[in-house]
From TrEMBL, chain A:
<dbReference type="InterPro" id="IPR003439">
    <property type="entry name" value="ABC_transporter-like_ATP-bd"/>
</dbReference>
<dbReference type="GO" id="GO:0005886">
    <property type="term" value="C:plasma membrane"/>
</dbReference>
<dbReference type="InterPro" id="IPR027417">
    <property type="entry name" value="P-loop_NTPase"/>
</dbReference>
<dbReference type="InterPro" id="IPR017781">
    <property type="entry name" value="ABC_transptr_urea_ATP-bd_UrtD"/>
</dbReference>
<dbReference type="GO" id="GO:0016887">
    <property type="term" value="F:ATP hydrolysis activity"/>
</dbReference>
<dbReference type="InterPro" id="IPR051120">
    <property type="entry name" value="ABC_AA/LPS_Transport"/>
</dbReference>
<keyword id="KW-0067">ATP-binding</keyword>
<dbReference type="GO" id="GO:0005524">
    <property type="term" value="F:ATP binding"/>
</dbReference>
<dbReference type="InterPro" id="IPR003593">
    <property type="entry name" value="AAA+_ATPase"/>
</dbReference>
TrEMBL record, chain B:
<dbReference type="InterPro" id="IPR017778">
    <property type="entry name" value="ABC_transptr_urea_perm_UrtC"/>
</dbReference>
<feature type="transmembrane region" description="Helical">
    <location>
        <begin position="220"/>
        <end position="240"/>
    </location>
</feature>
<feature type="transmembrane region" description="Helical">
    <location>
        <begin position="46"/>
        <end position="66"/>
    </location>
</feature>
<protein>
    <submittedName>
        <fullName>Branched-chain amino acid ABC transporter permease</fullName>
    </submittedName>
</protein>
<dbReference type="Pfam" id="PF02653">
    <property type="entry name" value="BPD_transp_2"/>
</dbReference>
<feature type="transmembrane region" description="Helical">
    <location>
        <begin position="319"/>
        <end position="336"/>
    </location>
</feature>
<keyword id="KW-0472">Membrane</keyword>
<feature type="transmembrane region" description="Helical">
    <location>
        <begin position="140"/>
        <end position="163"/>
    </location>
</feature>
<dbReference type="InterPro" id="IPR043428">
    <property type="entry name" value="LivM-like"/>
</dbReference>
Length: 246, 410
């Protein structure tokens, strides 16, 4: 399997505090990966670096077949390369309808002039409806997304990610605040998405990770502590000491 | 696949109908054209108000929709006024100079005419040379192009520098204010080439139109202002109505998220900042011939702050809200500060509105911000909520209340 994203030896320091410490990470082009680790381990910061929000002090972030250097690009350029991101806290545009949210995310030309002269085709409309169906919001299309329940907002955000048709999806704690039934729906969405693209999921909940049934990377104090199947890493003594044994 | 523009924007149709009705009504009642009920100066006031409504639309686009609290849009408005004012003043002065030399024994040379114009225009600032920036002042076409180009380029360069370094929020407001202040201070100088604090005057006299009385001219400008406002409204409704509107409202609410969707946020801000600067400039170019005079004080940051207050009171994020706010507040302001409002004697103290109006305005602004963030425009949600779902054919148009208030204030 070819490598889609290769992060090697990155470090970042905030006011003298090393949040990421010589971290390396790789993922293939159609792979599901879970990242676990205690609070403050640097999981969110890692995503910040890959998506261009935070610049690392050192290290490399290499993308795709052409081995492009992502560190030279800004957030929107990186997003256009095909990296989508879901934040820890659901961030949808609350003042706009579910339909508008999805339409904005749909993979289309992004320049101001293209968008100004954009005319919605029947095809785009169908696509939005299809996505809404997939995330279970078909009946809510015309509602303001601010009126949605917490779990529905999380799904809408996942729907917006899928609409972007990214090659890599970074998902930060998608199941936070969800009921068991909602969690299951979320798991299915992510497993389904990972069939055609790379998906990285940060999650605290072990049960959730188990259901994802994929390779797991354990972060601790800004670097990778262990990697492998869930059973493999949970048997690792270091992991038990710092994380599971607490 | 999509419904027609007016089907998606019923308020645009209502607005244009009301605006046309209003303009016709004023024309019929005006001194110059009809019943002589409305004085020429009142017609000019109303025409100017329409221009203020147009710049309020620009402010609403940039602030209400895109979240950039610009305190610089009156600078673009003023620049637009200056650019057209240069042609008006130059050509008008030329006519005067030529006619005063007509009786001389020898026909005047081009140089003599030029010297005459220079002395006439720049005598007040102790000069007689025509500065380089007046190079195109004898060409209406060139100056009209500059109305768009000068403010447009200024906005483009300023916006590029500011947005590129990701200055946002209060800092951006302060930066735009600094730009406005710098421009005003520059224009105040006598050697700025634009007559310092004297500004440009006599702009109400259109060159070559001596035979047309001001009462007629005022109607022309009223119609021109109404047409510009209508076009501005349509343009704004078109810009915010589709996906572009979604993106800029997204930028207003959470610009980082828009970036992660792959949109180049800085490009969008620059686009909207520049387009609205041009709209403001066109509004200014129509305003000052009706005002007759422009000077640097008009560009001072306070004007742009008023603009923000109008839009907030009218209701941000809806185009007719901005129009209502600008029309309502500026006309009420004219009434209070013009000495028409009766003083209130309290026995121990007399409230003189000329002094107290600003305080009243400030309090209203605070009250609206705290208690009615949707502004006057929010009232239409109430009406709509009551007569919903059929909002078509509602004859009380969005701007009509404001325009009625206009008439009431005469
Ligand atoms: N912008 C920032 N400034 C200062 N410290 C930060 C910043 N972002 C993250 N940190 C610190 O870096 C560490 C890692 O944070 P984070 O990546 O959010 O952890 P996680 O997502 O694994 O819980 C934390 O100790 C956090 O306080
Ligand atoms: Mg985190």
């Amino acid at each position: 399997m070819s490598t889609l994203l290769e992060v090697s030896g990155i470090s970042v320091t905030f006011d003298g505090f090393r949040a990421i410490n010589n971290l390396s990470f790789q993922i293939g082009s159609a792979e599901l990966r879970a990242i676990i680790g205690p609070n403050g381990a640097g999981k969110t910061t890692f995503m910040d670096i890959v998506t261009g929000k935070t610049r690392p002090d050192e290290g490399r972030v290499i993308w795709g077949e052409k081995s492009e250097n992502l560190l030279k690009l800004n957030e929107s350029q990186i997003a256009r390369k095909g990296i989508g991101r879901k934040f820890q806290r659901p961030t949808v545009f609350e003042d706009q309808t579910v339909f508008e949210n999805l339409l904005m995310a749909l993979k289309k030309a992004r320049s101001p002039f293209d968008v100004l002269f954009y005319r919605r085709s029947g095809h785009d409309r169908d696509k939005v409806e299809e996505l809404a169906e997939e995330i279970g919001l078909k009946d809510e299309l015309q509602r303001k997304s601010g009126e949605l329940a917490h779990g529905q907002k999380q799904w809408l955000e996942i729907g917006m990610l899928l609409a972007q048709e990214p090659r890599l999806l970074l998902v930060d704690e998608p199941a936070a605040g969800m009921s068991p039934v909602e969690r299951e729906h979320t798991t299915n969405l992510l497993v389904e998405a990972a069939k055609t693209r790379a998906v990285v999921v940060v999650e605290h909940d072990m049960e959730f990770v188990r259901r994802l049934n994929c390779k797991v990377t354990v972060f601790h104090e800004g670097s990778v502590l262990a990697e492998g199947s869930l059973d493999h890493v949970t048997a690792n003594q270091d992991v038990i000491d710092v994380y599971l044994g607490r | 696949m999509e419904r027609s523009f007016f089907a998606r924007n019923p308020s645009a149709l209502i607005f244009i109908a009301c605006l046309a009705g209003f303009t016709l009504l004023i024309t019929v009642l005006a001194e110059g054209f009809g019943a002589d009920v409305i004085s020429t100066s009142m017609v000019k006031t109303l025409g100017k108000t329409l221009c203020l409504c147009l710049i309020a639309i620009a402010m609403d686009l940039v602030w209400g929709y895109c979240g950039i609290l610009s305190l610089g849009h009156f600078a673009f408005f003023g620049l637009g006024g200056y650019m057209l004012g240069m042609w008006l003043m130059f050509e008008r002065t030329k006519e005067i100079v030529v006619s005063s030399m007509a009786n001389a024994p020898l026909p005047p040379t081009a140089q003599e005419i030029r010297d005459g114009i220079g002395t006439q225009i720049f005598g007040v600032v102790g000069g007689s040379e025509i500065p380089g920036i007046w190079l195109f002042a004898d060409s209406l076409f060139a100056q009209l192009a500059l109305v768009v180009l000068v403010p447009g380029l200024l906005a483009l360069v300023f916006g590029w520098l500011a947005f590129r370094s990701r200055v946002t929020g209060v800092y951006l407001s302060i930066l735009t204010q600094a730009m406005t202040l710098a421009l005003a201070l520059y224009l105040f100088q006598n050697d700025s080439g634009l007559r310092g604090n004297n500004g440009l005057s006599g702009l109400q006299n259109l060159p070559g139109a001596d035979a047309i009385p001001q009462s007629t001219m005022s109607i022309w400008f009223l119609w021109a202002s109404a047409a510009a406002l209508a076009l501005g409204y349509l343009l704004a409704a078109w810009i915010v109505g589709g996906k572009f509107g979604s993106v800029i409202r997204g930028i207003r609410d959470d610009e980082a998220r828009v970036r992660f969707l792959g949109y180049n946020v800085e490009g969008y801000k620059l686009f909207i900042f520049t387009v609205t600067a041009v709209i403001a400039a066109i509004a200014g170019a129509l305003y000052y011939p009706q005002a007759g005079i422009i000077n640097p004080a008009e560009i001072a940051p306070i004007a742009s702050i008023y603009l923000a207050v109008w839009v907030a009171i009218g209701g941000r994020g809806r185009i007719y809200g901005a129009v209502i706010g600008a029309a309502f507040v500026s006309l009420v302001s004219t009434w209070f500060t013009g000495g028409q409002a009766p003083d209130i004697p309290l026995g121990f103290y007399t409230i003189k509105w000329v002094d107290w109006w600003l305080i009243l305005l400030g309090l209203s602004f605070v009250a609206v911000t705290l208690f009615a963030p949707k502004g006057i425009g929010g009232l239409f949600d109430l009406i709509e909520g009551r007569i919903a779902p059929n909002r078509h054919g509602a004859d009380l148009g969005p701007d009509m209340s404001a325009l009625r208030e206009k008439e009431a204030s005469e």
